[in-house]
Amino acid sequence: QVQLVESGGGLVQAGGSLRLSCVASGRTLSAYAMGWFRQTPGSERAFIAASAGGIEHYADSVKGRFTVSRDHAKNTMYLQMNSLKPEDSAVYYCAEKRSYGGDEYDQVSWYDYWGQGTQVTVSS
Asked: Averaged over 61-69, what is the pLDDT?
């Protein structure tokens, strides 16, 4: 049984930065991939970043501003968010794919485990 817990969300002004963390517990094997998604009310959960098979991927909307990283020893994934914009406001979720099974890292259905989310609000 795997549990994922996000933290680091909060209220920031436009142009500011936040660093989100996702701590995983209960794993018997290292994850193949970990990803970050975000969701606003009335919309589908959207891909923003992932680390899969040692390769980083980013949605066009955050490329150049957000950076994903993993600390395998601490079972932790990070999302560094810089130059934040009001449109970045959302609930942010982390997810884990336990082993290789295709390469659909931008699809919600591909992941095996999900955290409960952390709120990020960016003011003008």
From this structure: 97
